[in-house]
Amino acid sequence: METQELIVGLQRGSESAFRHLVDTYQRRVYNTVLAIVQHPDDADDVTQEVFMTVFESIRQFRGDAQLSTWLYRIATTRALEAYRKKHARKRFAFLTSLFGGQDDGNEPDDRLHPVDFDHPGIQLEQQERGRVLFAAINRLSDQQKVAFTLHHVEGLSYQEITDVMQTSFSSVESLLFRAKQNLRKQLRNYYYNA
Amino acid sequence: MEDEIEKTLHSLDGIERAEPKPFLYTRIQGRIERRRADTYSRIWQLKPAYVIASVALLIVLNVAAILVYNRSHRQSDTARPSIDAMASDYGLSFDIQ
Fold first, then answer.
1. Fold of the A1-107 domain
2. Where in this chain does the record put each RNA polymerase sigma factor 70 region 4 type domain (chain A) (predicted)?
3. How far apart are CA B22 and CA A146, in angstroms?
């Protein structure tokens, strides 16, 4: 199915078009979301939300961007929202536990105590290093995290990232440069203390 | 140490895409159905609001009816002496012994 045909089908509410969209883009969306939220169940939940957002707002899609660009934009926005929401809740639970409130203790604040995240697509011999890198990615700013993820996890070009993030080419270059600088600094601290 | 850092920075080289759990489409469809059902139930939840509005309207109508009735009754009381005078002028009044 051609992309234009797919968009028209989606805008007409065609179930087969929606199924085709999910089948075609589910791995790209899930992989992007997973790298940001760093939790498989949360990534699954956010991926479903991304496709529901597409289902509900496809009529607003004007075709001025590629469908994949639009999907990446929704996916990164939703993933960052979910990540922030979860960690705000955890920080609140942490604070209430400090003041003697009840904390279920099941979910530690992984900003304070990073949770080990193994990306299933990393080669086995790189798993340990990947875990350290993802913990460092977690501490990047939202913009740097998105740019780095799209480039290094999804393999998008600078121009594609420019379209997804609706910014300039030089901004993307700068974001990726600063992201690498920050990662190097964090890794230096990590290996120095290890 | 710099070598370790560079190796870790390149640990994502050759990364493959992660796969979502199977039957994603079915789960999305289920979620869409649930959201639709929630929307309908929210409409039902609005019903008490309609009921309260209807009762309020009924009360307002009743109060208005009572006020209108009282006003017209008061007007008929003030008209009474002139009716009696006219009746006596025409010899139509009588006292019951």
1. Rna Polymerase Sigma Factor; Chain: A (1.10.1740)
2. 135-183
3. 26
| Of residues A72, A37, A28, the one with CA closest to residue A53 | A72
Chain B CB contacts of A122 below 8 Å: 11-12, 15
Alpha carbon distance B42, A189 (integer Å):
52
CB distance A132–B8 less than 8 Å?
yes
Asked if the domains A1-107 and A116-194 are classified in one and the same CATH topology, the answer is no
Q: What pLDDT digit, counting tens, does each position of B29-78 carry?
A: 999 999 888 877 777 667 778 788 889 999 999 999 999 998 887 776 66
Q: Report which residue type is found at A171.
A: S
Protein fold of A116-194: Arc Repressor Mutant, subunit A (1.10.10)
Q: Sign of dihedral through CA atoms A189, A192, B3, B7?
A: negative
- Assess A121–B contact: CB distance below 8 Å, yes or no: yes
Domain positions in chain A are 1-107, 116-194
